[in-house]
Write a structure and sequence with these properties.
By secondary structure, the chain is mainly alpha-helical. About 60% of the residues lie in helices and about 0% in strands. The longest helix has 17 residues.
Amino acid sequence: MVTNRRTTKSPPKVAATARTKRATKPTAARASLSETMRELERAGSAQTRKTYARHGAREPMFGVSFATLKTLVKRIGVDHELALALWETGNHDARSLAVKIADPARIRASELDRWARAASVRSCGAYVPMLAAESPHGTAKARDWLASSDPTLRAAAWTLIGLLANLDERAEDAWFAQRLARIEKSIHTAPNAERDAMNRALIAIGGRNAAMRVAATAAARRIGKVDVDHGDTACKTPDAESYIEKSWAHATAKGFVSPAAQERARESLRTRC
């Protein structure tokens, strides 16, 4: 991969991807809001509600498994109107489905702002940044959210930055290098959720290309151990330096030039998990 080394203070511009183009294909049939909500309610379970609650989800929710949501996504496809209606219910499971079936080409910047403020659940809070990364607003949202006084939006910004590091081949490395410098300077004093997102952004930037691998690994080494409180869950904080190396070993073993290239070849994170 050829690395663009020009310096810039502007965030990267997101290139249209084949994945996004596939995501905007019209679906053959539409499900109504009432039908979808009834199906979500039938699929819910008390045990899953308990699991989601431990990860920060709030009522109302049915407790629908990710496997069931994935089945629904495959059947519904892209239905932006239904996505908007599902979000407005305020139901956790309906909102999880909404971000998976929304059309990135049609989502508004103001809607991304509103959704990101509400999507702080650790298990699925990354979905809105995923949607933003595939939309025309990704770079602007990365800039705006990073400058916000709201720690929830800043955490979303770091998740989005990691996604852009993977998805946008045309972006300039200098912009990501500046983000590495900010991570190194402030990760240990950042709020808990933002600290977690920073660490994951550091790993993603390290998988962008060979130059960023060197820069991110050096930053990770200087940063050292990152402590994140994951609450009453089994989640662990990945060690950035070792995780970057493992991701490169896995990607190259599969024939990819970088972990980012491997990610671009896969189905969107929004719909595959």
